């Protein structure tokens, strides 16, 4: 089974950005956490981060026929990007939404998730653990 983990804009700034919201661990720490979880589950994982909406759309399209499940934290594009929603729908690969922070308790503009409309499950406000839960979900629910 092969999983693709996609991270959107500013997640590369983890450990620097708004530590009271996103914590002190770095993006490299998050990558190491995801790779360790993949080893534990016995799945292959590819991790991709971009600050560009189109690059995320391109990566979702390239996953067609090549990946069994997508874990996605679209970051700010969660709340704005119909293009990412459409890309997830286009490839119809089982997808799970993750947010480090509890967006349900934050500003009104964070209350809509476009990408989430194409996701089978949502792990929100669990920090890094949300990625682990999403990977477990796909291991159990996606066909690979
Ligand atoms: C985020 C929440 C988004 O609202 C925000 O724009 C992010 C990170 C999270 O993981 O909590 O950049 O997706």
- Rg over CA atoms, rounded to whole Å, is 14 Å
What is the domain tally?
Answer: 1
The share of residues in extended strands comes to: 15-25%
Instruction: Examine the coordinates and then state which fold CATH places here, giving the name of the CATH topology.
Output: Rossmann fold
The name of the CATH architecture is 3-Layer(aba) Sandwich
- Number of DSSP E strands: 5
Q: Could you give the order of the helices and strands? A: EHHEHEHEEH
Overall description:
The chain has helices at about 20, 25-40, 55-60, 80-90, 130-140; strands spanning about 1-5, 45-50, 70-75, 95-100, 120-125. With about 140 residues, it is of the alpha/beta class. It has a single domain, classed as Rossmann fold (3-Layer(aba) Sandwich). The protein has a five-stranded parallel beta sheet with strand order 2-1-3-4-5, sandwiched between helices. Helix 2 packs parallel to helix 5 and helix 3 packs parallel to helix 4 (about 80-90). The protein is globular, with a radius of gyration of 14 Å. The model has no long low-confidence stretch (mean pLDDT about 95). 1,3,4-trihydroxy-5-OXO-cyclohexanecarboxylic acid binds near residues 73, 100 and 110.
What can be said about this structure in brief?
The chain has helices spanning 19-22, 27-41, 53-62, 82-91, 129-141; strands at 2-7, 44-49, 69-73, 95-99, 121-124.
């Amino acid at each position: 089974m092969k999983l693709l983990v996609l991270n959107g804009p500013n997640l590369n700034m983890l450990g620097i950005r708004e530590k009271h919201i996103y914590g002190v661990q770095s993006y490299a720490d998050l990558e190491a956490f995801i790779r360790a979880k993949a080893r534990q589950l016995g799945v292959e994982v590819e991790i991709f981060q971009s600050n560009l909406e189109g690059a995320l759309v391109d990566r979702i399209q390239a996953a067609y026929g090549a990946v069994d499940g997508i874990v996605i934290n679209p970051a700010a594009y969660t709340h704005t990007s119909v293009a990412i929603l459409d890309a997830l729908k286009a490839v119809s690969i089982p997808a799970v939404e993750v947010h480090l922070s509890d967006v349900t308790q934050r500003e009104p503009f964070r209350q809509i998730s476009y990408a989430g409309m194409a996701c089978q499950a949502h792990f929100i406000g669990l920090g890094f653990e949300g990625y682990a839960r999403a990977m477990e979900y796909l291991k159990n629910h996606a066909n690979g």
